[in-house]
Amino acid sequence: MSVKHKVFANLYQDSVSLMQVSAQINKLPGIEQASVVMGTETNLIQLRDAGLDNGCQAGPNDLIIAVRGEDQACDEALALAEQRLKSKPEESNSSGVRPPVLTSLEMAKETAEDANLALISVPGDYAAAEAIKALNLGMNVMLFSDNVSMAHEKQIKQLAREKHLLVMGPDCGTAIINGMPLGFANVVKRGAIGVVAASGTGLQEVSCRIDQLGAGISQALGTGGHDLHEEIGGISMLFGVDALANDPETQVIVLISKPPARPVAERILQQAQKAGKPVVVNFLGADAQEFHTSGITFVHTLADAAEVAVALLNQKSIPASVAQISPADEKVLAAESVHLPAQRREIRGVFAGGTFCYEAQLLCKQQGFSASSNTPVKGNTLLSDIWHSQGNTIVDMGDDDFTNGRPHPMIDPTLRNQRIQEELSDPKTAVVLFDLVLGYGASMEPADELLEVIAQVRKKVGAQNLPLLIAHVCGTEADPQVRSRQIENLRQAGVLVAGCNAQAALWASYVARQQAEK
After folding, report:
1. Strand ranges, E, within 404-480
2. More confident residue, 58 or 15
3. Could you count the other beta carbons within 10 Å of the beta carbon of residue 423?
């Protein structure tokens, strides 16, 4: 087994492109692990921890390709990655002259004077400086980069507030601005519902379900996961609420977040009350009664947020929560689980979306099933060994614990699929609960490899010895992966596909309860 690397000076690529190249070479025969990253101090440490550092000498402006595997396979992977990274389409204008290579925000702004948004995707050590440059050039910022300190985030957002500009992020993975999907966004219809979310997959779930219900999105603004911490004060969400309140195309506003610090929540809700438009709020897991806010509709799940927003837009009565199981669901689940032996009692959740993992934990816990997790909700237990489940276990495979030196599972689901295979093979597992997230940047065929894994386990143990598989597909028909096609592929493989993440979690809880009563 060899470990090899190549270093390229001043060959910068954005984070998503690097993850996509990493995903491609990770799948090559004979490759055990691969990573394509910039040579920052943080990334060098992660390469060392992942066993990919064989004396690599690189600086923060260098790009590193590191691989571990069979000797010849490593050489082929390095060559393919270099080819992918250096290949650029030939571009020219009508006169046949190629445009200049832009190497700074200042040059870009000079070339496109009307540009008012900068999407920044550089290593976290340098992201704050680039964000400040963009703000000083009069541009709003989407900060895709993560690993930005709270102190730097506060500095960036205070400057943005002074300049009346918006900062989405750090670690903002999803946004839709004037109909343009940014980051890991989905293809949704334009419409009259505006969303501000401190969660990327939460924003995706709400915007996709709004699309599925026939409505559309005016603007979808991400804030980054730390915005509603007391130290930051919700600066970006407050700006977003005010922007949507003054946007003539937005008729209904939706706010999504994990429970904010109480003083921050109160400021946001006071601002929302002044919007002059219906506002739907989902602070995941928070008790709405604590806030006593009139004129704002609090909801229980991500799917509920979309359902209620569409109802308010259409001036219809508030629908019942999706967080319930119908008699028809019970009948199907009972029939599907009748073959499970009594020792199969445990829920195993394997998620690519962090907010889906969080919501599933909350709903399973409300149904009486506490769980261990690498990202536990209040009352759940921190998983002692993230690589092995114990009892009911619900893990976020997109967390830094799993993605250091690896692509995110939305881009490359290999590690997620391996975990699902392990859970399927565990004789204690009653149900494997998972998500499939579609959209730009995500794997083009996210179900294919998983279906191969399911087929392999089924062949080994027999169909009657498999636990149930319950999934939720976050996406739309207009996404490159086509939601209905992914759902049909899963169903053909025997997977039960729920309409939303909340419903999938409730289905899993129902199966576990039935097993406990055997």
Report:
1. 429-437, 468-474
2. 58
3. 25
Evaluate the omega torsion of the peptide bond into residue 170 and state whether it is cis, within 30 degrees of 0. Answer: yes
Other CB atoms within 10 A of residue 197 CB: 33
The CB density around residue 247, as the number of other CB atoms within 10 Å, is: 15
Confidence band for 481, pLDDT divided at 50, 70 and 90: very high
DSSP 196-247: EES-HHHHHHHHHHHHHTT--EEEEEE--TTTTSTTT-SHHHHHHHHHHHT-
Tell me if residue 472 falls in helix, strand or coil. Answer: strand
Interval 244-267: pLDDT, tens:
999 999 999 999 999 898 899 999
What's the token pair of residue 280? 């739907």
pLDDT of residue 512: 97
Cα 480 to chain centroid, rounded: 17
- Tokens representing 222 are 């991400």
Question: Could you give phi then psi for residue 93, rounded to 5 degrees?
Answer: -90, -175
518, 436, 425, 415: which is closest to 467 by C-alpha? 425
Residues whose CB falls within 8 Å of the CB of residue 263, separated by 6 or more in sequence, listed in order: 230
Give the pTM. Answer: 0.86
Alpha-carbon torsion, ordered 254, 320, 439, 195, to 10 deg: 0
User: How far are the Cα atoms of 114, 145, 165, 200, 255 from residue 137, in angstroms, in the given order?
Assistant: 11, 19, 11, 27, 29
Give residue 69's identity as a one-letter amino acid code: G
Token representation of residue 288: 């709405």
